[in-house]
Please model this.
Amino acid sequence: MKWMKFRIKTITDAEDMIISALYDIGLEGAQIEDKIPLTALEKEQMFVDILPDGPEDDGVAYLSFFVEEREDGSLEVGGMATDRGTILAQIEKELDELRFFMDVGEGSIEVTETEDIDWINNWKQYFHQFYIDDLLVIPSWEEIREEDRDKKVLHIDPGTAFGTGMHETTQLCIRQIKKYLTSETELLDVGTGSGILAIIALLYGAKHAVGTDLDPCAVEAVAQNMEANGIADEAFQMMIGNLISDREIRDRVGYGRYDIVVANILADVLVPLTPVIVPHMKIGGIYITSGIIDTKEQIVREAVEAAGLTILEVTYQGEWVSVTARRER
Model:
């Protein structure tokens, strides 16, 4: 499948207005390139720490719109046939109208042709089956090799939610979960994403799991991965909400209930999260954290101890850290 790419050079302040104006002429799904730093909410919704800071914001932005090319060479917008010249003229007209009341920057338009744009599926070429110790992690689009049929297997398809098990932080959590898991374990997975940590806990014999996430995309990803791994609906309960700020979601999660709480999130989120988590844990419950870059290990240690938890061990993989603690009282 071929696509025509219309790439507009503009400024960050004009992004939303240009996207809105071009949406009205049928151009949807803008790809945005800029150097605006992540907001606190965007950071909170990520599950691992951010390594170096990005380049300084220079105010420049590029907006790309992709238009499908039909077999006869025409382009398709909103189900209607059109052509390159017409689309280009429409974009230029919209930019000219915007210039009457706002700065749109350079406003130049670059047109190129590209093939096989599939934003949801193209990343799959980089994700293949692999082992985490004795666990075979295999994506839904691959088959189990004959020599691996006697292995413990996790079928995973992250879809639009984070979590394949390839990242060091996830592997650190998996090893700690396996270490403290029993057949009676009630587990809470904060920032569950694809559900990988909770599902692995259930595969290794946990009694029940609850997952929370801020991103509604996690609901479908979790449901698909539960089905792929034969996890019964009643074994894993999924909730959308922010435990730090939302009393209603905290009440739904329940208090004094969990043998293990795992949180593979940003270090800067773990700090306010940790004191909120403690009331949800049983006395003697285990708190497993990761998503911590090594330079932020100390602030997480301090937050864990300030919440009254006892640090049991700190484990490392590459530049990443996992802190495991216990609620003593």
Summary: The longest strand covers residues 281-293. The mean pLDDT is 86.
